[in-house]
Description:
By secondary structure, the protein is mostly helical. The chain has 22 helices and 17 strands.
Amino acid sequence: MDLVPQLPRPTGRLSPLWKSRADFFRTFRSTAVAESSSVGGENIAPLFDPESHHSYDDEDGPELRQLNHALGVLVEVFPDVQADTLREMLMNVSEESRIEVVTEALLKNSAKGAETSWRAGPNTSRSNITISQRKSEIHDKGQRVLNIEETFRSDAYRKAVKQVFYQEFKSLSHSSIKAVLAEQNYSYTLSRPVLQQLKSRSWRFSLSSIPNFWMRRAASQQNFADDHPFISQLPGAGAAVKRTGSTQLDRELYELFAEPLVKRRKHEQLTKDYDLAEKLNEEEAAQAQALFECVCCYNSVPFEHITACDQGFHQLCFDCVQRTVHEAVYGQGWNRTVSLERNTVRCFAPGEDCDGSIPQDQVRQALTADPRKNASPERQNDNIWVTFQSRLSAAILLKSGLSFHHCPQCSYAEVDDSSERSPTLIFPFSFPILHLLLTSLLALISLLIPVDEILKSAYQRTIRRRRGLRFRCQSCNYISCLRCLSVWQDPHVCFSTTLTSLRTTLESSATQAIKRTCPKCHLSFVKSSGCNKLVCNCGYTMCYICRQEISAREGYAHFCQHFRPNGGRCIECERCDLYGDEDEEKAIKRAVEVAEREWREREGMKCAPGDKEKLIFEAFVGHAARRERWWETWVDKIVDIIVVE
């Protein structure tokens, strides 16, 4: 029954019940507004629209934009300094000339040898980086990388992240969440794994996880999208993100949780549509007697799935072409399958020695005919056509016998024309007699010394020195070194930063594993000795193990008060230990192993831990051995003077 409001009683003859029609409907309007605000305002939350083109700069104020601009400038000038160090220095200086003040301070510290937090390497990346963070990287390929997680975050983003974590991790205290956020620069993606680890060690989580262990395990496999308070499951459309008050966080949550589900639903729908279309097409072709027989597998297929060679006109189906190319690329049939002269696949019809080949456009259509393979999120990088073209191009370049400069990140290559270029002299010999005498002298000397090889080597060294070792790829814009093939970063010294990068990466990961940050003043510190009750300089008191705030009333009651004669873990309560550690050696070892594995994957080192260092040493020794011949220096100087190019 509809809600009928209580009508007011008449107070007297001179005060009528309703003076006009508006007075009659006013009571109903106020009741409807109150009902909608009490019901719909709390239960209905607007959803984030991923198609909206909202700029992140709209949330940042002018001061925050200036800070991020100054941070970007300092990162370009000091690419080896960590971003958190630059942020801390920018926050402690005034607005006027902040870039100049920080630059002068860094130069003074480096000149005095003061301790400065240096960055691990030019391509240091953190785990679980979302797509939006990769798109928002402020960098040039081969230059210093500044992720959006390293920049100053807006107040709207910070408030939204705290509110989301308060609802997602209700078993953790707000002070623990604030401490973790302060350590990770309020990044949702970086803070969430740390909070999950703290939640798994919480006694509340231990009690609640007993009846729902298998349910939580299944939810963990789905990336916790079903249990997230800000993820709504929509029937037939995957998932959606409730608005948090920050567009940056909405986009981050969408790409972390909702977008994989949406892509999976779209792929499933595309698979069903493609299967239905193929079935209907085959039935219609069979009814019209328009099927073609493959001479290889003898299957009858429609016209859309058949091709023919250019000589014998042998009909071959797309499935046979796919299997043949797959065996050629990943198996042992490359030489007999691929024609390097025609840049395509040879005819593989059985029973006949056909010299024909399948047109390249037909091969591409056969390998990319199924749209499900290209649309699958799991097979985005498993495109056999791209792999086939890359290997075919590499084989053709190798067969040409030319000297190339290869990009270490992609299959792009440039011809090294220094070996094929003929030198041009600055002072040509205008006197025939002098020219004849010098030619005769060189001919006599060449009988004893290989003059041609010496001059050719000197000319090539001169051309390479003039060109430089900096190589920019025209395909992926990656800047690398021609000698050590590592990323180019000014000032660049070959092989000198490899071991330094590994060492600083491991040290930084070990520090991050045991470092704590005060959520009030953002001061970072590490406990060297003493109890786990830590008091910051600003007066904030926190627990070193769980990072929870310790109030003045609670004090040492936050820690375990039971006597344990044999030591070990308390069996009567789940409180933190006053003098126990969280097994820092195990945490450091785990963080170092993960950091070393990520560093080797980033540097492209697939070999054993000692092989890379051996190659670097051999490169240094070989380069020094070649320069031991003193006359090479003088020959290079003479060639550099008399040769233009």
